[in-house]
Design a protein that fits this description.
- The complex is a heterodimer of chains A (252) and B (251).
- Chain A contains 10 helices and no strands.
- Chain A is mostly helical and 252 residues long.
- Helices cover 83% and strands 0% of the residues of chain A.
- Chain B has 251 residues and is of the alpha/beta class.
- In chain B, helix 2 packs parallel to helix 4 and helix 6 crosses helix 7.
- Chain B is globular.
- In chain B, 45% of the residues are buried.
- Classes of the chains: A mainly alpha (252), B alpha/beta (251).
Chain lengths: 252, 251
């Protein structure tokens, strides 16, 4: 069953590459508009051999990790506050919903004005693009906690910060994981988008270099790398984390 | 002076936007080491009354005294066993039982010693590392009782803890509950809507009236232990409780 599924997937991607190569061989478009898979592969290999690809990935990941950490920390705090203090929800809550509808790249001009063309600016865009998804999911999670959990804990003497760390966060964690997942997806878009517009390093920058040099195969190669990293992090970090939490909480 | 005293407790509910007097001045004094069952018609506010004793809800009037001191907040001197157990699904059985001790800052090895004692008592030792979703409803209530007992509370408050159990499991726990009470000499207040359960468990049964509820009658159940539900001699106590429930006067 599982081998069968893997087989289907491999066959599908092999087919794509064959069709791609076929279109290229038909010479409908010139090579500088429609590169062959071999040219894209060569570009990737070149990036690997001179290390520029790894340096780009490393830079983007580093910015992502910092930005996402800020988003997760801040989003959890804000979400818990919104869920537990009605006034905060009525005031900041409505603003959060509005801010979440702003695409991350729309923060780029503000980031440049505030932070200049710097890492801080990119991290700002990454964090602010992700924070509200974490906030909203944390809020929903804390709101949905069985009230008897909180009562039982208070009855046994838990207060304030203890209540937050021992009850609110673990009880809301299955929801918060969805927030982290969404947050990561927004952060990844944010970091690439910001790099594309104003960075000197990172995958988004390499993508932009490809455009400036009219190097279509470099552009496609970078897009594949961005997609590949997305699949890896989704599948290996968040899927695993989610499975573990769902099993432990008895939700599946 | 009783161990725990409720003085003229009054509580309103919101019903269709209007206040509805649910508890209409309940007075109840429970002595140290007593096992008091509260029975009453549904909607009479007996669970709310228990929550007021626990400090999880505030009465609109009246006060609760523990050893003569007025209580304001909830706290581990009165531990509540909830109807559905309220066990934490992200913790193992052992960690659930140790939760209150951890909150109180008791060192780990001491915590283990205490929890082990009560896990043994509740026959849960082989489930110490299980998660609660792996347990049956009856097992979960055993964990909830163990979690309450480790806190060594002055008063144990139990809110229909056996309501969701099948009758076999319930009969077993009714016997165990009496043994726990005799062994630990705890003061227990136990809310139930099940009359035979009250007759089996209570050294005294307080019958609540319809809302606005008051304590309609207080019946001593003077009978040997351990009692079992099918004992016919308990029948006369059950009849007395039922009679008190029935003579409610105007609704």
């Amino acid at each position: 069953m599982k081998a069968n599924l893997l087989g289907k997937k491999i066959a599908f991607y092999v087919l794509i590459i064959i069709v791609w190569q076929g279109i290229d061989s038909a010479e409908i478009w010139p090579d500088n508009i429609f590169p062959s898979p071999i040219e894209v592969g060569e570009d990737l290999l070149y990036g690997i051999s001179d290390g520029s690809l790894f340096y780009g990935i490393g830079t983007s990941m580093w910015r992502l990790v910092i930005g996402l950490s800020i988003a997760i920390g801040g989003g959890m705090l804000l979400g818990i506050f919104m869920a537990r203090v009605e006034t905060v929800n009525q005031t900041i809550g409505s603003l959060v919903l509005g801010l979440q509808s702003i695409p991350s790249v729309a923060w780029v001009p503000l980031a440049i004005l505030w932070f200049g063309l710097s890492d801080s600016g990119i991290i700002f865009v990454t964090a602010i693009g992700a924070i509200f998804a974490v906030t909203i999911n944390t809020y929903t999670g804390v709101k949905n906690i069985d009230p008897s959990f909180i009562e039982a804990a208070r009855n046994m003497g838990a207060k304030g910060g203890q209540l937050i760390t021992t009850i609110l966060i673990p009880a809301a964690f299955p929801y918060m994981i969805s927030g982290f997942k969404q947050g990561w997806a927004f952060a990844w878009r944010g970091v690439i988008g910001a790099e594309l517009l104003f960075s000197f390093l990172g995958l988004g920058f390499l993508l932009n270099v490809g455009r400036q040099l009219n190097d279509v195969s470099q552009v496609i190669a970078m897009m594949l790398v961005i997609m590949g990293i997305g699949i890896l992090i989704d599948g290996f970090v968040f899927k695993k984390l989610e499975d573990k939490v769902m099993t432990k909480w008895g939700l599946r | 002076m009783g161990k725990i005293e409720a003085k003229n407790i009054i509580k309103y509910f919101q019903h269709d936007g209007k206040p509805l007097k649910a508890i209409g001045g309940v007075n109840l004094t429970v002595d140290d080491g007593e096992f008091v069952c509260i029975v009453g018609p549904s909607g009479c506010g007996k669970s709310t009354f228990l929550r007021i004793l626990a400090g999880l809800e505030k009465p609109d009037d009246g006060e609760v005294l523990l050893d003569g001191k007025k209580l304001v907040n909830t706290g581990p001197d009165r531990i509540m066993v909830f109807q559905e157990g309220a066990l934490f699904p992200w913790l193992t059985v052992e960690d659930n039982v140790e939760y209150g001790l951890k909150v109180a800052g008791i060192p780990e090895n001491e915590r283990h010693d205490i929890s082990k004692r009560y896990l043994d008592m509740m026959q849960l030792s082989q489930f110490a590392n299980s998660y609660t979703y792996q347990l049956s409803t009856g097992m979960k209530q055993r964990v909830a009782i163990a979690r309450a007992l480790v806190m060594d509370p002055d008063v144990l408050l139990m809110d229909e803890p056996f309501a969701a159990l099948d009758s076999q499991t319930r009969d077993l726990l009714l016997v165990e509950m009496q043994m726990i009470w005799q062994k630990t000499k705890k003061t227990i207040i136990f809310v139930t809507h099940n009359v035979p359960e009250a007759a089996v468990l209570g050294s005294r049964v307080a019958v609540f009236s319809h809302r606005p509820s008051v304590v309609k009658k207080s019946l001593d159940i003077d009978y040997k232990r351990p009692r079992v539900a099918e004992d016919e001699n308990l029948g006369k106590f059950e009849k007395q409780i039922l009679a008190a429930l029935r003579h409610q006067g105007p609704k």
